[in-house]
Amino acid sequence: MRSHAEHSLRIERLGADDLPFALRLTRDNGWNQRADDWRRLLALACAGARLARWGGRRAGTTVTCAFGPTAWIAMVLVARSLRGRGIGQALLADGIRYAEQRGCRTLRLDATPLGRPLYEKVGFRAQFEVRRWAGHPRRAAAGRAPEFALARTRAPADLAAVCALDRAATRTDRAPLLRRLASASAPWVARDCEGRVRAFLFTRPGRVARQIGPVCGDADAARALLRRALAQWAGRPVFLDAPANRADLSRIARAAGLDVARDFLRMCRGREVIEDSALFHVSSGPELG
Prior knowledge:
Layout: E1 9-13, H1 19-28, H2 35-45, E2 49-54, E3 57-67, E4 70-78, H3 87-101, E5 106-111, H4 116-121, E6 125-135, E7 149-152, H5 156-170, H6 175-184, E8 188-191, E9 197-204, E10 210-217, H7 219-232, E11 238-243, H8 247-255, E12 259-270, E13 280-282
Parallel strand pairs: 4-5, 10-11
Antiparallel strand pairs: 1-2, 2-3, 3-4, 5-12, 6-11, 6-12, 7-8, 8-9, 9-10, 10-13
């Protein structure tokens, strides 16, 4: 007979020494995160980055990042050989408990079809579908946007404008995330004729493809930035995650030669928070919305 210890579940803080295991989970599930993404999540989540052990073995992960009263739960992953033992459910409960202890009134996440039933059981509600477009953009011109000047920047005033636009679009203060993204790769911004930042776009490398997003701001400016990014990365694999009901963004993706790869379901638990559809265009990815 197997001992009780062989079936015991323990949840502890996820640390830098656990990153090789976390990266194996990412690879085994076909997800796009690299080591830099995990390090960013560890820095943002601090004690909210969690590791499950089953019988002493590393078994799964979850990451909960608090942005003021709103928390994002992500990276709920369980090793394939250890699924069906309630590990994912225990990790999710741990993440919810951590967020509530931090005073978060809203919990949000992007669910895969596999995870959706688990989230619904603990009170998460559907908000809207996020569609992943993937492929190698065609080598086409970016198109002209004479009303906007497009440029990359890390200037403090521009990053402050980026954070303000994102806060208006997502109704969440994600400045710590955006500043970390900017430190790795300067965002593109679109300025109007008076020099004001009207929209922004980030990209970052991924394990499978370059992730385009987040993209927020004035819709015309955001579309100009998106066309610019697709032209820049022509011939190389990209992902972009946009609301499924956005016909304009779907047309841009199709025109670039991208195809629908998968859908996520954005979900919420607690006080309702939802993006401003006039300002929110492309997600940063399922990790943090």
